[in-house]
């Protein structure tokens, strides 16, 4: 679609007789018109009806694009965790590139890697991770804004140096992959932690509590406190698809808590597309 035709259609969004039909036609064209929407947004008054409808259309199209790409990512096995997290960020920050996130994670990796030695004890490895992430680089658990949508947007987690249990755990998991450390996510109810899968001596790490170590018996106690029956998945590593699903679930809940039902609905639609995995 050329810019002239696009402008002509957008001008009709102010006409109540045809606005719905025009909006549906524009959405039917697909995410390819997102650059046109971004280019034209500032030509309309911030509080004007056309501007509001264009912003709503932009959000829907971004959601459509992410829905398709995340589904394809999951269909392909979801091996690249960072790509899955980046796609979620695209819902709000479409100009964020995957390459920029890879570059930032690589900078963090190098800060850790220079301190590593061969055959290090797992406790020493974890100490390096904890010290580098929380002391040297200044990452913090986002206790004050625990339910903020920003905690689920990985570009913001990296730039603001704060996040939720699952997003901070993702920093550790991604570093562990590059460092060949057997550290994986564990999908506990109401809490996301990591498993250091040492043969014969596995233990768990609560990244949100700045790398606190705990053990299977502690999960047993936690489940008793929650009045939950033990299940195998509460102790074992989860998949990257399950991690991304957890992040999306948190994001939907954050939008619910902040009174943004349209955005919550868009995220729930994406979640439905991942349910078969």
Would you give an account of this structure?
This protein folds into two domains: 3-75, no CATH class; 81-274, no CATH class. It is built from twelve helices and six strands. It has helices at 3-11, 19-29, 34-41, 49-75, 81-89, 98-113, 122-136, 154-160, 165-179, 216-225, 240-257, 261-274; strands at 140-141, 162-163, 183-188, 191-196, 203-206, 212-214. The strands form two sheets. The chain has a four-stranded antiparallel beta sheet with strand order 3-4-5-6. The mean pLDDT is 94. It comes from Leadbetterella byssophila (strain DSM 17132 / JCM 16389 / KACC 11308 / NBRC 106382 / 4M15). This is Protein SirB1 N-terminal domain-containing protein.
Give a nutshell description of this structure.
By secondary structure, this protein is an alpha+beta fold. Helix content is 57%, strand content 8%.
SSE topology sketch:
Blueprint: H1 3-11, H2 19-29, H3 34-41, H4 49-75, H5 81-89, H6 98-113, H7 122-136, E1 140-141, H8 154-160, E2 162-163, H9 165-179, E3 183-188, E4 191-196, E5 203-206, E6 212-214, H10 216-225, H11 240-257, H12 261-274
Parallel strand pairs: 1-2
Antiparallel strand pairs: 3-4, 4-5, 5-6
Helix pairs in contact: 3-4, 4-5, 4-12, 5-11, 6-9, 11-12
Q: Characterize the biggest β-sheet.
A: 4 strands, antiparallel
Identify low-pLDDT runs: none
Distance between the termini: 35 Å
- Beta content comes to 5-15%
**H/E order of the elements?**
HHHHHHHEHEHEEEEHHH
What is the helix tally?
A: 12
Roughly how many Å is the radius of gyration? 21 Å
Backbone shape: elongated
**How helix-rich are the residues, as a percent range?**
55-70%
Query: What's the rounded overall pLDDT mean?
Result: 94
Number of domains: 2
Give a count of the beta strands, DSSP E runs of length 2 or more: 6
